[in-house]
Amino acid sequence: MNPWLEGLICVLLLVGSGFTLVGSIGLLRLPDFFTRLHGPTKATTLGVGSTVIASMLYFTTQHDGLSLHELLIPLFLFITAPVSAQILCKSAMQQRLKTTPKTRGKPWQL
Amino acid sequence: MSRLFPHPLLSGVLVILWLLLVNSLSLGSWIMGLFLGWGIPRLCTRMWFENARPRHGWTTVRLLLRVTKDALIANIQVAALVLGPTRRLKPAFIEVPVDIRDELGLTLLMSIISLTPGTVSAELSEDHSRILVHALSEENPEQLIHSIKTRYEQPLMEIFPC
Q1: Of B82, B115, B125, Cβ closest to residue A25
Q2: Is residue B36 predicted with pLDDT exceeding 80?
Q3: So where are chain A's domains?
Q4: Own/partner pairs for B13-18, CB < 8 Å, 24+ apart?
Q5: Across chain A, what does the average pLDDT equal?
Q6: CB-based contacts of B36, cutoff 8 Å, min separation 6
Q7: What CA–CA distance (Å, rounded) separates B25 from B18?
Q8: Which of B53, B43, B152, B58 is nearest to B96 (CA)?
Q9: Which residues does chain A have within 8 Å of residue B93's beta carbon, measured at their own beta carbons?
Q10: Residue ranges of the domains in chain B?
Q11: Lowest CB count within 10 Å: A76, A78, B98, B121, which one?
């Protein structure tokens, strides 16, 4: 395998796992429920994206055949992630979860 | 043809999805894909949005590229916010008034808001006139509202006119 290609795939995988890690760290250290919600919906966009590109490159070059079915992973993820985020947010508002004191604006009373 | 495939766009998307899912272009996958593209819209006719016929192909492509670009840039900003000191965060609930009436367009707008990092769409008001957005760190709510309305809502209203 071409060393340049190999390097590119490695870099993509590292970037991907790095951003996924950042998303999880966000889940751990952000102050309240609503800010924590940003971790998993967010940093994963780039994380999943570059992992998927790395996988497409690897399997296309390894098994001489275009491999595109990885594209479905971000597609389904992008359809479902906003919906689950909204439902989590909605139930958090209904439970009247506390926000950090610095939050401006009020959640709606459901 | 139009009786066999009442929603040609949906059928086409389903065929492509199936071909990607099995990752092959053999005759068998084509037949199965066409069968699914014929059957699924038939079962879902009542659930399907009435006039979901995106009109401006070029605007759609441009909006897609813009969302991808914004997501990439903002991903890095959010990563920096998450790793930086948390007391510097300025979380906020912001109400964004929306003018778009089309249901599919509204769904897409809320999804785009959630996917572009830094904002999550939390709730839609009963009369579909306002979206409650939670921002991870926003100095300037006015500017956020303005950018959502011009960058995403405007093209969506062109694609899905009422």
Answers
A1: B82
A2: yes
A3: 3-94
A4: B14/B40, B14/B41, B17/A72
A5: 83
A6: B14, B15, B18
A7: 10
A8: B152
A9: 103-107
A10: 8-44, 57-159
A11: A76
Question: Any idea which of A5-19, A70-84, B1-15, B106-120 has the lowest mean pLDDT?
Answer: B1-15
Tokens 């992630």, residue located = A81
Task: Specify the pLDDT at position A12.
Answer: 93
Q: Chain A residue closest to B78 (CA)?
A: A43
Question: From CA B11, how far away is CA B5, in angstroms rounded?
Answer: 7
Q: Does domain B57-159 have CATH number 3.30.1220?
A: no
The token pair that represents A60 in the structure block: 């296309």
Q: Does B33 contact chain A (CB < 8 Å)?
A: no
A30 vs B78: CB contact, 8 Å cut-off?
A: no
Residues in chain A: 110
Query: Between these two residues, B57 and B97, which has the higher pLDDT value?
Result: B97
